[in-house]
Amino acid sequence: MNLGTIFLSEVVGTAMLLLLGGGVVANNILPKNKGAGTGFLHVNWGWGIAVFAGVLVSYKSGGHLNPAVTLGLVASGAKEFVPGIPVDAMSILTYLGAQMLGAFIGAVLCWLAYKRQFDEDAPAGVKLGVFSTGPEIRDYAWNTITEILGTFVLVFVVLASGHWGDSATKTPGGLGWLGALGVALLVVGIGASLGGPTGYAINPARDLGPRIAHAVLPIPNKGSSDWAYSWVPVVGPIIGGVLAGLLSGVLLPK
User: Fold this and answer.
1) Separation of alpha carbons 201 and 214, rounded Å
2) Cys staple from 76: which of 15, 71, 134, 245, with CB 3.0 to 4.6 Å?
3) H or E element: which one contains 80?
């Protein structure tokens, strides 16, 4: 195992995540789509399945797909990300860089899939909504708190799942793809419970990479990329992930 393999694995997984995740939003909100108007719960399930697929194909890297997960593991005191890859500055940067690149690529692929729909007349905010999140009520402080809480739940439960199969709980480990399914269901649950105020980015790369793609792609009448809000779905998830990692040592006894 080497960092090149880790980088490729995270790029592929995060691209899959954004292709399918952005795709379910595009299907729901862009004009002239079979899935138009099917609702937010449909979006939640689509993102959950996107996470499931992304985690499965990024098996070599452990399927982080999210800087908040990577930094949460660092804050938890993890010594290795996967066997043979120690937690150090180079491996952290490898994960974060791959996640950002993969998210950008996945957003571009989503745009290609829905190119004709993007070319149709639609409000600029609707087109941006395929790529990145935005609040229903714009209040930067409270929007950040929402993202902190949602990401805390994600990373804390992911870290807790790592204890299943250990000698203390006496439960079977090595669940393979069922572990990916568990994370997928968790993402659906977070969206259904906490996703309403901000659209639940809970992942800095998921929001920032596609927002950059929106800024550079030739989308007709796309309007602003809303950079004034862009820091919220980056800062909030990072804080939430790090807090989950730090508190896991206290609230998740080994």
Assistant:
1) 16
2) 245
3) strand 80-82
Q: Which two tokens stand for residue 137?
A: 């009520």
Structure-block tokens of residue 227: 């950079």
Residues of the chain with pLDDT under 70: 165-178
Give me the helices (H) in 30-88, please. Answer: 40-57, 67-75
For residue 96, CA distances in Å to 89, 100, 197 come to 11, 6, 26
Cα 100 from Cα 31, distance rounded (Å):
28
Judged on CB neighbours under 10 Å (0-12, 13-18, 19+), 142 is middle
Alpha-carbon span 167 to 254, nearest angstrom: 10
Name the CATH superfamily housing domain 3-251.
Glycerol uptake facilitator protein. (1.20.1080.10)
Beta bridge partners of 80: 86
Predicted pLDDT at 166: 53
> Which alpha helices (H) appear in the chain, and where do they start and end?
3-29, 40-57, 67-75, 89-113, 115-119, 124-131, 140-161, 177-194, 204-216, 232-251
pLDDT for position 135: 97
Tokens describing residue 66: 């999210």
- Domain boundaries along the sequence of the chain: 3-251
The closest alpha carbon to 209, from 15, 23, 49, belongs to 15
